[in-house]
Amino acid sequence: MKIGISCYPTYGGSGIVATELGKILAEMGHEIHFISYALPYRLSGYYSNIFFHEVKVPEYPLFEYPPYALALATKLADIAIYEKLDLIHGHYAIPHALSGFIAREMIKDQYPLKIITTLHGTDITLVGADPSFMRITQYSINQSDAVTAVSNYLREETIKTFQPTVPIEVIYNFIKEPPPNANVCSTLRRRLAPNGEPILVHLSNFRPVKRVLDTLGILNLVLQEMPAKLVLIGDGPDRPIAEKTGREMGIEKHIAFLGKQEDVYNLLHLGDIFLMPSQSESFGLAALEAMSCGLPCITSNSGGLPELNLDGVTGFTAPVGDVAQMSAAVLKLLRNPDLKARFSRNAREHALQNFHSDSIIPQYIKLYNDVLNR
Ligand code: GMT
What we know:
The chain has helices at 13-27, 68-83, 93-107, 122-125, 134-143, 152-162, 186-192, 212-223, 239-249, 264-268, 285-292, 305-308, 323-335, 337-354, 357-373; strands spanning 2-6, 31-36, 50-54, 87-91, 114-119, 146-149, 168-170, 199-203, 229-233, 255-259, 273-276, 297-300, 315-318. It is α/β, with parallel strands linked by helices. The strands form 2 sheets. The chain has a 7-stranded parallel sheet with strand order 3-2-1-4-5-6-7, with helices on both faces. A 6-stranded parallel sheet has the order 10-9-8-11-12-13, sandwiched between helices. The relative contact order is 0.11.
């Protein structure tokens, strides 16, 4: 198949899923065309059947808000015709579903194009539900040839918020077998935890929805009982406040801010427990990546997280903001090595058995074929 993928190129789950999907499809022999305003994060390097098409939005004094959705629609239509695409798979409804729809309509008399939309989370729960975007999100979902959501929770939320007229199919996020932890850098572990302290890890884009400050609150309570370190991977709007809060709490020397990282697996392998205290999370891809490395997870019980992190099996879940319960869960695991080892095995098994790309990617391929054969 010749597949166009439109997505955000930035540091975030939807772009990562889109990119990893494209890379695996390309390995399987499909021809993949990424279409975005910048090269997607995690798409560095050369791949023989992956092509990248940059969307440029011309500057003009009148454009206080550059019309990216229109430039994207034009590019999608051009690439579909020139590269003879079978379909375009847009990740994150706004603006990808709408731009795809416009592209399809613009060229329908000369070229048949199918549009598939994957909903990722905040495109439904935060941005899409905002009155400024509500009707257009609903409209573009209904115009897609197929729509998927990354969890049952997100499917239900989409139905509740938008009452779509098209079916929403759940296709979970996925991981590949993580690289072995053989080349985990012991020097780095020693630097992060010089006295062998357990390492709590958080990985996100530091948006308010991630509640990064809760990870500091958890560390603070854990430190009252035993030594520990907190490793924060990623960057975003809440990083400065997190750094300031760490200093104000007097725990800054127990926290390492590593910023954005390419090779998250090597870092995840260094950790003991993964923290994801999000306000809302449609799925929690970073937690899945951590689980595949054998990290038990302490997460909030919001959104789709309980579909991924099985309470009392792969980790513990707690109500949003309940830092006391989350730190108690961390302490329970750290004080009980057998329990931690069992949860670690369960986490890895659950990740690889239920979310491996080998079982998830065929679901996308089947959907593509169903849409093309309709
Ligand atoms: O806020 C983020 O984490 C980024 C966002 C995105 O769309 O880039 O992530 C969403 O999509 C991920 C991939 O499907 C999901 O794993 C995340 O749970 C989801 N984020 C939220 O729902 C907050």
